[in-house]
């Protein structure tokens, strides 16, 4: 086996390929990163000694990361050539952007867990705030209200959103489909408080002004969920290959049965993920529930009778209406925020299990 080397037509000398001319050692990026952080740490150390203030670890790491990006590009250009240097530069930029995006998420998680665990006790999950003005009490009424209103909103919005997406993908043609698509796009961008005002006005027409009901909060959340369900389900249905539909039609299967037995099972994983995203989108809403469902310190298991508390509104009221001692109210707010995060996490895990067990490939 022989290797042919291309030559420059003008000079006759072989053309050096930057992809094979040289390679940095495997440990070189980490070495350069460590050196960049060390240089930044030394500079910040000198500044800290001169100013008499504490050492800024966050600033040293950030400056070190910024110094690493041009350094890895320079060393790669000298050793490996411009093409591989550009690849390393883009890799460094993408990795840096990812780490930068993870910093708020990790910081938020650590903060909520740190402050929320102080009231993560049996009393918090077994008592309401009825007749509690200081320490003690719990958020059972808010947890029940969140689950009831979010569940009712899901029952309302998922069938409507899924059938709308099926119509747009499988049946919709002409101006009607275009009009529905336009309205869905408009609904996607409406502020959440507008949904709360809509639900409040709707029930005020029939039940009178000043009414606050759990079902009104569920309707407000459903208004926010429907466009998300429609958009995500529509995209998943469009990813189903047309060959599967044509194969079913060739066997004489009606269109509605093809959708039920072929199209929906094929896209069930993506549809489930989209539904969970819509639930996660609305489960933390405060403004629409504050307007439509109100808030209360007592238990309420009925969506159609009286005000109903939710975890986001509970966090808001505990923080905004602090009593004596204020630390008790702050601790309850942090614990409720941690509970809300855990509920969203549990819903996402359930969605993954549903997508796994109901996907066609699992049953093969």
From TrEMBL:
It is a multi-pass membrane protein. Pfam families: BPD_transp_1. Gene3D superfamilies: MetI-like. It comes from the Bacteria. It is found in: Cell membrane. Residues 143-351 form the ABC transmembrane type-1 domain. GO terms for cellular component: plasma membrane. InterPro entries: MetI-like (IPR000515), MetI-like_sf (IPR035906), Phosphate_PstA (IPR005672), Phosphate_transprt_permease (IPR051408). GO terms for biological process: phosphate ion transmembrane transport. The chain crosses the membrane at residues 30-51, 57-78, 90-118, 138-168, 180-207, 213-230, 333-355. GO terms for molecular function: phosphate transmembrane transporter activity. Keywords: Cell membrane, Membrane, Phosphate transport, Transmembrane, Transmembrane helix, Transport. Its main location: membrane. Part of the binding-protein-dependent transport system for phosphate; probably responsible for the translocation of the substrate across the membrane. Belongs to the binding-protein-dependent transport system permease family. CysTW subfamily. This is Phosphate transport system permease protein PstA. It comes from Agromyces albus.
């Amino acid at each position: 086996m022989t290797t042919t080397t291309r030559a420059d037509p003008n000079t006759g000398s072989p053309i050096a390929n930057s992809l094979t001319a040289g390679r940095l050692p495997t440990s070189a990026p980490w070495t350069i990163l460590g050196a960049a952080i060390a240089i930044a740490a030394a500079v910040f150390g000198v500044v800290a000694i001169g100013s008499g203030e504490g050492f800024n670890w966050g600033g040293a790491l950030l400056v070190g990361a910024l110094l690493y990006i041009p350094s890895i590009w320079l060393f790669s250009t000298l050793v490996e050539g411009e093409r591989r240097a550009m690849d390393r530069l883009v890799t460094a930029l993408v990795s840096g952007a990812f780490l930068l995006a993870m910093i708020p998420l990790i910081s938020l998680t650590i903060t909520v867990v740190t402050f929320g665990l102080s009231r993560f006790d049996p009393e918090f999950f077994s008592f309401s705030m009825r007749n509690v003005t200081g320490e003690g009490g719990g958020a059972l009424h808010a947890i029940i209200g969140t689950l009831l209103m979010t569940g009712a909103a899901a029952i309302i919005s998922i069938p409507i959103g899924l059938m709308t997406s099926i119509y747009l993908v499988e049946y919709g043609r002409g101006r009607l489909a275009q009009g529905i698509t336009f309205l869905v796009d408009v609904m996607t961008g409406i502020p959440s408080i507008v949904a709360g005002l809509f639900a409040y006005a709707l029930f005020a027409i029939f039940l009178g002004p000043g009414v606050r009901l759990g079902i009104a909060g569920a309707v407000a959340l459903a208004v926010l969920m429907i466009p998300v369900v429609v958009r995500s389900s529509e995209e998943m249905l469009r990813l189903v290959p047309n060959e599967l539909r044509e194969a079913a039609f060739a066997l004489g299967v009606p269109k509605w049965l093809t959708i039920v037995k072929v199209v929906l099972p094929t896209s069930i994983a993506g549809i489930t993920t989209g539904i969970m995203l819509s639930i996660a989108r609305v489960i933390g809403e405060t403004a629409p529930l504050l307007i439509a469902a109100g808030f209360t310190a007592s238990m309420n298991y009925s969506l159609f009778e009286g005000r109903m508390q939710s975890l986001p509104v509970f966090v808001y009221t505990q923080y905004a209406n602090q009593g004596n001692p204020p630390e008790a109210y702050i601790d309850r707010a942090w614990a409720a925020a941690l509970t809300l995060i855990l509920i969203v996490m549990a819903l996402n895990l359930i969605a993954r299990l549903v997508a796994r067990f109901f996907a066609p490939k699992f049953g093969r």
